[in-house]
Amino acid sequence: MNMEQILPVPSPVSSYWLSQPHKFSDLRSTAELPTQCEVAIIGSGMAGITTAYHLFHHEQPPSSVVILEARELCSGATARNGGHSKVKLSTLASQVSKLGPNGVDELQKFVQGVIASLKQVAEDEELDCELEIRRSFDVQLDDEDAASFKDTYQVCRDAGHTWTKDVSFALPRYLEQVTSIKGAKAAETVPCCSLWPYKFVTQLLERLVARYPEQLNVQTTTPVVEVSVLADGINAITTPRGVMKAEKIVFATNAYTAGLLPQFKDIIVPVRGMASHIVPQVPVHPHLSHTYNITFSSGQAADYLNPRPDGSIVVGGGGSMFKSDRPSWFNNSDDSTRFSSEVETYWENYMQRVFLGWENSEAEVEKVWTGIMGSTPDGWPHIGRVPGQKRQWVLAGFNGGGMSFIPIGAKAVAKMVAGDSDFVDVKDEFGIPKIFATSTERLQKAFAETK
Ligand SMILES: Cc1cc2nc3c(=O)[nH]c(=O)nc-3n(C[C@H](O)[C@H](O)[C@H](O)COP(=O)(O)OP(=O)(O)OC[C@H]3O[C@@H](n4cnc5c(N)ncnc54)[C@H](O)[C@@H]3O)c2cc1C
């Protein structure tokens, strides 16, 4: 085994989203690991399961698919995140100089497509996952940030950039009233989808298992420790339960990708994040109907908030409490422990402190957890054929935004796998931003920049 192997650690802490485990959480379709298959998917998060879904929906579905998962079903970042899909105004504004107007338009259109895809799949498959199409507030409490986004937006709006058309600024004189955020200096809304990602993924798998009992085999608690290519070009996947041959492989391993694909070392880096679930003891009315990203001071990562239909709220971020302690989060794939109790004090009275109307809610922290993201130097995921390989594809490195990129990325990967094709062959059909394409050149550039 590779000495630097990054594998999901055993016994991850639980999260709010995992509070209702699916009956398939420890599914093994067969007692023994199959000896071979047409397509092996490594990873059972949003990326792995939506890829399987689209593979089976392709006009030429594979004859056999095996999903290999190191731990319980969907126990990685997909079960530990903020549960919303959106692209922040700050992201769009910051990319204008790098991607140009067309690039930013392409990015926003892609995320809009992802939101539509989540809704479509949830409705088609009758997934009970609290999916709602909402608006999301980006709120700035810093005057400089507020002014800078406004300026970029104004210039781009005047120039007719399409991405500005679905961004709306809250009226400056009613900011606190409209957002409920104390001290808000600016606020914008963008489209978003809120959902319970674990329920979306596990119920989608349940539908596939029922529909394709002969073709689909799921093996949980089966870590892949090595992948090699045999002389005849077939892949050999080594696990503690034996070796399986696969004609094709999809790496849906996000933060852990470099553990199996050394070319992604230092390119997809595991990064630990923190989130919480806060419950008011006294009902708060009216119900918060938007999701939020709140930036308290310039240059600081935003907190993200997703009000649940029952009146509670998932709140994540808190980076200001731990970012100075780099080993506690960077290159850290340990989601079996939480941050220190000192760091976690951040969540105490959070809602009472930040939101108007919550002062007398007696809101309490019900749960705090950690989760592992796959961070990339340029901030974008890697999607496409694995550089240097013929029958392997990857979709990973989603940073803090997999819910906004994966559903269509997975559809595109399914098409590449079915057609034995490359990113460039499907890019236009799926409207995927070209910055998401993985390639030897991109890896080399990123590697040089990290040195
Ligand atoms: C705290 C937190 C908050 C976030 N908030 C948001 C948000 O609000 N919106 C948003 O869009 N995104 C958010 N994200 C990011 C988002 O959760 C991820 O981008 C997304 O879930 C990635 O999905 P995935 O399927 O690629 O990875 P995962 O869900 O991590 O799935 C990868 C799976 O692969 C398995 N695996 C890995 N290696 C192996 C191996 N060698 N053998 C077998 N199995 C293996 C893992 O066990 C895991 O189950 C957040 C992430 C965190 C941690």
Shape: globular
Q: What name goes with the CATH superfamily of the largest domain?
A: FAD/NAD(P)-binding domain
Largest sheet: 9 strands, mixed
CATH architecture of the largest domain: 3-Layer(bba) Sandwich
CATH topology of the largest domain: FAD/NAD(P)-binding domain
Tell me the domain tally: 2
Portion of residues in helices? 25-40%
Ligand list = flavin-adenine dinucleotide
Query: Residue ranges: pLDDT <50 for 5 or more in a row?
Result: none
Distance between the termini: 26 Å
Pairing-aware structural class of the strands and helices?
alpha/beta
Total strands: 17
Structural write-up:
- With 451 residues, this protein is α/β, with parallel strands linked by helices.
- It folds into two domains: 17-80 and 198-268 and 379-450, FAD/NAD(P)-binding domain; 131-194 and 270-375, D-Amino Acid Oxidase, subunit A, domain 2 (D-Amino Acid Oxidase, Chain A, domain 2, 2-Layer Sandwich).
- It has helices spanning 46-57, 89-124, 143-158, 175-179, 197-211, 341-344, 350-354, 402-419, 423-430, 440-450; strands at residues 36-42, 65-68, 84-85, 132-140, 168-169, 186-194, 216-219, 226-229, 235-239, 242-251, 269-279, 291-295, 303-307, 313-316, 364-375, 382-385, 392-396.
- Strands 3, 4, 5, 6, 11, 12, 13, 14 and 15 form a nine-stranded mixed β-sheet that branches.
- The protein is globular, with a radius of gyration of 21 Å.
- Residues 7-8, 42-48, 68-71, 75-78, 80-85, 223-224, 252-256, 259-260, 273, 275, 304, 316, 371-373, 396, 398, 400-404, 406 line the site of flavin-adenine dinucleotide.
